[in-house]
């Protein structure tokens, strides 16, 4: 995935002879949803849609990948027979409940015998992941995922549990408080300078106030998504403060020398 333009990407793809699939994420939606702050960044997803590893791609090796292939379908989706086109479209649309029923009616023995189990585990993973988001107070990601999770379990017993979890998004006090925290973090980050000149013009008292505020937030939401987001922002603010202090000190020395 890249946030760069097609004009910048295509020549690089051709020059490097890239053979792997690639796609565009111009607004960085995927990066934000996964909490990625640095690139390159690799995410390893098992056959059931669960993230089982993440980090710098240079540290990912075959030993980490091989065990996860055991339950994968041998035939990749893009090579399924023509009669399985509706099943493929249904899975791509995220309608797993409907796809489970369709999979059991396939002519292909592999799809008929293995696909229902694969899809069932995809559903389990979706529900478990959504539940974890709610418990982690990761409210923005949960809200963004709620529709797709509901669609995935439509017609399945898990639909009632997902509906209950979605209801919590609208009436749970802790989740409401978490949403305010994320909004405040976004507000603070929007106020962070993006140039050297703006950084040097920033009031350090204001910056220190942000740090104190977010340190208190991190303590209030320890071990939860809002707390981690607050801690990460404090780290960025602390680096910004150190930069400003060093630059101002250097300016003061330069001015003293010129005098």
From TrEMBL:
InterPro entries: Thioredoxin-like_sf. This is Uncharacterized protein.
């Amino acid at each position: 995935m890249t946030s760069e333009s097609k004009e910048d990407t295509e020549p690089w793809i051709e020059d490097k002879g890239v053979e792997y699939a690639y796609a565009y994420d111009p607004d960085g939606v995927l990066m934000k949803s996964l909490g990625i702050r640095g690139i390159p960044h690799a995410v390893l997803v098992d056959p059931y849609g669960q993230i089982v590893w993440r980090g710098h791609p240079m540290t990912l090796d075959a030993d980490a990948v091989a065990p996860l292939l055991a339950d994968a379908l041998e035939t990749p989706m893009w090579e399924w027979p023509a009669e399985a086109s509706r099943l493929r479209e249904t899975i791509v649309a995220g309608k797993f409940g409907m796809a489970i029923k369709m999979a059991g009616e396939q002519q292909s023995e592999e799809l008929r015998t293995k696909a229902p189990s694969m899809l069932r585990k995809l559903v389990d993973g979706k529900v478990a992941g959504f539940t974890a988001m709610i418990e982690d107070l990761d409210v923005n990601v949960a809200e963004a995922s709620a529709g797709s999770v509901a669609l995935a379990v439509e017609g399945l017993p898990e639909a009632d549990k997902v509906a209950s979890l979605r209801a919590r998004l609208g009436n749970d006090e802790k989740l409401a408080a978490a949403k305010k925290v994320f909004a405040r973090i976004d507000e603070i980050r929007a106020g962070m300078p993006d140039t050297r000149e703006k950084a040097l013009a920033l009031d350090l008292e204001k910056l220190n106030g942000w740090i104190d505020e977010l340190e208190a937030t991190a303590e209030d939401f320890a071990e939860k998504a809002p707390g981690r987001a607050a801690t990460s922002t404090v780290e960025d603010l602390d680096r910004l403060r150190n930069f400003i202090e060093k630059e101002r000190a250097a300016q003061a020395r330069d001015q003293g020398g010129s005098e």
